[in-house]
What does this fold into?
Amino acid sequence: MSEQNKILVINAGSSSIKFQLFNAINNDKQPHFTILCKGLVERIAIKNSNFIIEIANGDNFIKHEVTKDIADHVIGAQTVIDALIEYKVINNFDDIKRIGHRMVHGGQKFNNSIVIDEKVIAGIKACIPLAPLHNPPALKGLSSFQKLVPHAKHVAVFDTSFHSTIPEEKYLYSVPYDWYKTYEVRRYGFHGTSYRYILDKLTNILNKPKDKINAIICHLGNGASICAIKNGKSFNTSMGLTPLDGLIMGSRSGIIDPSIHGYMCNVKAEATIETITNDLNKSSGLLGISGHSSDLRDVLASSNDKNHKYHLQSQLAIKMFVQRIANYIVQYGNDLDSNIDALVFTAGIGENSAIIRQLVIEEIKVFTLKLVTNKNNDKYNDYLEISDKQSEVPIFKIRTNEELMICQDTYNLLKNI
Ligand code: ADP
It folds into this structure.
């Protein structure tokens, strides 16, 4: 007999709650997860909040959308639960016994996903100085669902925990050692849930045990990072103390000379550490260089349109974006002793932009990498190998699924409730 269990996955941001509801069907101890619905509450506490729920219907989803004012995260969470009942995805609140939450920063405290109790909440709160933009809204999401579904058990899944295996010489910054010892200044890395998912996928695709896999994974979304995986473990990654480090992103600068901060505070009228940090997070990257947009699709369009006001800046933004990725791939190739089982492109840009994949590969000169143009351009569902046989490293585009990973962790940690 098969046992069915619903698992709700929550990703709460400052003005949004993304959710997915899975069903775990446990046949012969091998759980199989199917998605029942997904959706999003956006513009929380901003006028004209939007609620979207998409209900699974075979291979497709039926979408429902409502615009109404949603004043805070508790009302957002209530909207989610009410809709699950209204659209008959669940019968009542009691159907939800397990909720998994995406937490961005677990600092040095959390090396694995964990069942949430008061001590864990205190630990996540203690990490707020490391992730002031991310941990507070995730905690708000957690407390909202705790309030509304008091009988449910909750699990925290951290973006940072996958990177706890990075060796000391790679996670330390060359700053006074006391900054690390006293203030925990070090590289933490993010997107770990996506990297774990891709690594699991690679074990199947390559038919190789996880602990034998060496790979370079490019998670290129609005936020973007790269990870070198050595023997199935994170060995290096481009994001650092915060998600601002590393690659050029939608609106984040990535790595810069650290003295730019102080210099700008001195020369720009009314600039403070906070305003400059804000500019580096929200007005830099593709947006900052192109002057046009943080969305790669917009920047590609303006870079291709000679008459566009930001044509040349957009071309420059793409060139810089691609070169930075290529340079990290080369560096990580060296970290992996050129012994690389797979180079993977994933997330919004990595999964969908054939031109960015092509430009990155063309930019790499120290390895012989070759794409098959048709395969690079082809539609696909789950993953596709896109390299030619002559390529020194097999190259893949793989669709990531962080929510499924959170669902699996939640299921595994709460198996016996
Ligand atoms: P995040 O989760 O970090 O917000 P996503 O992984 O959703 O970001 O990626 C968003 C980025 O993916 C945007 O820059 C968007 O332009 C890009 N993107 C999405 N679809 C495509 C596509 N078909 N072609 C090119 N870029 C795309």
